[in-house]
Design a protein that fits this description.
Elements lengths: L2 H4 L3 E3 L5 E5 L13 H5 L3 E4 L21 H14 L5 E6 L1 H12 L4 E7 L17 H13 L1 H13 L5 H12 L3 H13 L13 E8 L5 H10 L3 E9 L3 H4 L1 H13 L1
Parallel strand pairs: 2-3, 2-4, 4-5, 5-6, 6-7
Antiparallel strand pairs: 1-3
Helix pairs in contact: 3-4, 5-6, 5-8, 6-7
């Protein structure tokens, strides 16, 4: 299988240091358009589409493989191996951040740093953990996807972007989600919102930057505090903005934080 075609891999820039950008649920690599060109001036930037999104090869979809985050993690490792990468810095968003974390646990010698935007190891509330959602909330969301995918995409984009003053950003995200293969997107949503990776956090040995937003309905502040306490080499930065996609709604602030951590 042509791995580069499978995940529509693109490379920008020619820097000595390599960054791999890992999308969250419902997004293709265009979600990085506001930050990737700037990063490419200094680094070699690898972009790709998750299975089911963008221009990934949907014919390569295997339900059993992608029934957990392990399948998406394997795709990321396949890309790094195919490109013969080393000392990689991973920049992951949302569930893409968890995929980065799982990849670094499996192949710690391959990765130099993890830069995680709005990560969450578990989206549901538990007696000792505040993930932001009750299980009934997750069940209702998944049921809505099944009955009206387009309507769900529109409401989900509003909820995730958190920028009522920038409606164009919401429209763009909704459009991206609707371009996804619906069957794959529904399974990826179920995998994303029912995963629980809290027990994996202590196994992350790669230096890690956690970037959270001050008002994020998907990954509330309590999640950032939990991650900071659980990951051995973690640094937490809270951006004074709303929403779950800071690289889209506040690209300059996001770039400043990422570049400062990489330069340290």
């Amino acid at each position: 299988m042509d791995i580069l075609k499978r995940n529509n891999v693109r490379i920008l820039g020619r820097g000595a240091r390599t960054l791999v950008l890992v999308n969250g649920f419902g997004c293709d690599q265009s979600i990085w358009n506001s930050v990737a060109p700037t990063l490419a001036k200094q680094f070699r930037v690898v972009l790709f589409d998750q299975m089911g999104a963008g221009d990934a090869d949907f014919a390569a979809y295997e339900p059993e493989k992608y029934a957990s985050l392990a399948g998406y993690t394997q795709d990321l490792l396949d890309i790094c191996r195919h490109l013969k990468l080393s000392q990689v810095t991973l920049i992951g968003h949302s569930v893409g951040a968890m995929i980065c974390m799982l990849a670094a646990i499996e192949k710690p010698d391959l990765f130099r740093q993890l830069l995680l935007l709005c990560p969450s190891p578990c989206y549901t509330n538990h007696p000792d953990y505040h993930g932001g959602f009750e299980q009934t909330d997750i069940d209702s969301m998944l049921a809505y996807m099944e009955t009206d995918f387009v309507g769900w995409a529109d409401s989900f984009a509003h909820f995730v972007m958190g920028t009522p003053d920038q409606p164009s950003l919401v429209m763009e995200l909704s459009h991206r989600i609707c371009k996804n293969d619906q069957l794959i997107a529904k399974q990826f949503a179920r995998v994303t919102f029912t995963s629980d990776n809290r027990h994996d956090l202590e196994r992350v040995t790669t230096p890690c930057l956690l970037v959270q937003c001050a008002q994020d309905l998907v990954a509330p502040l309590e999640v950032g505090s939990y991650l900071l306490a659980a990951i051995p080499q973690a640094t937490l930065v809270t951006l004074p903005i709303s929403g779950h996609c800071p690289h889209v709604s506040a690209p300059l602030e996001t770039l400043t934080v990422l570049q400062s951590f990489m330069a340290a």
